[in-house]
Design a protein that fits this description.
Helix content of chain A: 10-25%
CATH superfamily of chain A: Vaccinia Virus protein VP39
Number of strands of chain B: 0
Oligomer: heterodimer
Largest sheet of chain B: none
Order of helices and strands of chain A: EEEEEHEHEHEEHEHEE
Mean pLDDT of chain A: 88
CATH architecture of the largest domain in chain B: Orthogonal Bundle
Strand content of chain A: 25-35%
Chain lengths: 222, 289
Amino acid sequence: MKSFSERVRIQGRSLWSRNAVKGTSLRGERLTRDGRKEWRQWNPRTSKLGSALLKASESGLLPDPGSTCLYLGSGHGTTISHLHDHLCASKNHLEGTIVAVDISPRCIRDIIRLSNTRPGILPVLADCRQTEYIAPFLSAKVPWLFQDVSQSGQVEMFIEVCHRFLAAGGTGLLSLKSASERETDGAFEKAEDALVEAGFTLVERIDLAGWEYQHVLFHVVL
Amino acid sequence: MKGRMTTEARTLSIRFPEAMVIPPTSVDSWPELSSDEITLLQEATVKLAEQSVADAASNPDTRLEHLVQATEEIRASHNTLESRLVEWVGIFLPSLDLDQNRNVIVNAVVNSSDLVGVSNHLGVTVAEVEMGHKEWSSLQSLATSVTNLSGDVQRMEESVRVLANIHLPSLSLLLGPLLAAKLCSTAHGRARLARLPAGTIQVLGAEKSLFMHLRQGTDPPKHGHIFQHSWVCRSPKSTRGPIARMLASKAAIAVRSDHFGGEPWTSKQVAQVEQKVGEIRTRRKGVMK
C-alpha cells in the first residue's frame, strides 16, 4: 500500500480517497470500509489527476491539506470531489478551499450541487481567460493550480493565469491534449519549451497513455 | 486598463471618476480572511454561481438550438414511423397506391376500428388475412403516434418561428425564420454567426462536402442550409452558386445588424435582394445563349 497523504492512497492497483461524505458514492464508485474510515475509489479513467497520480514518479502532485487551490476546467466535478476528500475532508474541518472554475453552466450546476454536501468548494462560472472574473474569489495567491480546459491556446492561458494567481514556489499542473491545439505535431515539446521559457521549473512530464489518449500532464513549479 | 475591468467596476468608475482603479487581477494586496468571512465567501459564491446558471437560461441562443434540434429529431422520427406504417398497412391492401395516398392512409387507420374499415375508408379491397386484435391495436397506436408527431412538428416549427422573429428579425425577414434559426444553431449562436464571413455562412450545413473538398480536392460545395431558400433551390442549377453567394453575403449583413443592434431590415431591403436574384438569373440566361 502506497500513501500520498492521510486521505489518498493506492491499494492493490487502484487509487482511493477517504470519503468526506460517508455513504455516498458520486458516480457509482466502489466504497470500502476500513474501521471507521470509508474509502472511495478514484477512477483514473475519468480523472486526469487520478491517472497522473498512478503514473507519476515524482511526488508533490497533490496540494497540502487545508490550503487554497484553483481548479480551472472543473467539468462535472469527479476530480473535484476527490480533491475535496483530500483537501477539506468531512465538513471541511481542514478548512481547505477549492475554487472551481468552468465556462459551462451545465457543469457549474453539478458543482453547485456538489458544494452543498461538500463545503469548501467554490463554484465559479467564468471563462478562464478572463482573469478579472476569477480574482474576486481568491484572497491571496494560491499554492496549487490545476488547469484542464481542452481548448486551443491553453499553454499561454496557463502561463498567464499562473503568473497572476500562483504563489512563488507553488505547484502548477497543466493537462494538455495534443488534439486540442491547432498543430498536433510537436505540441508537447512546444508546450514544454514555452513553460521553461516562462520561468517555470519542470518537475515532470507525465504521459497519461493507458488512461487517456494523447494526453500529457505537466507538473511545474513557479 | 478599462478593457480589463468587470462590467460592474466600469459602471462604478463612470459614477465615481475620481476613484482610483486597482486592477482586480492582482490578488496580493488583499487582507487575510477570518473564518467567518470564509463561510460568507462560500455562501456568496454559491449564490452567485446559481444566479449565473439561471442567467444562462435567458440566452435565446441555447433555447433556439434546443428547439431547432428537437424539431429536426421529431421530424426525422415522424418520417421513419410514417413510412413504416404505410408499408405495414400496404401489405394488407394490395390494390392501394401507396405513394399517392400517404396522408389519407394514416388518418384512415386512426379513424377505423379494423382492417375492413380501413379498406372501406380508402375504397380498396382487403387481402384475405386473419389479423388478431392485438396486431390491429398496435398498428393503430402507431398511426396515432404518427398523427401526434406531425402535430408536434407543426407546433415546434411555430415556436421556432416566434423565437427566431424576435431573436433574428432581419435575418428571418430575409431567409425565413426556420432557415434563420437553423443557421444560428449550426453556427452555435448568434454572436458567432454575426462574426462569420459570408463565405462560411454560404456553406454552413455542407461541412461534409466542404471537408471532402479540403482533404481530397473534390469540387467545393456551392451552398449549405441556404440551399433550402426558394431563391436558391428553385433556380436553374447554373445560377444557384452565384445566388447562394450573394444571398449569403446579404445574410451576413442582416445577422450583423441583428446582433450589433443595427437598424432592423424592412421589406425594402429584401425587395432589393430579390431584384438582385432576378438580375443574376437573367444574366446567366444571357451567358447560356
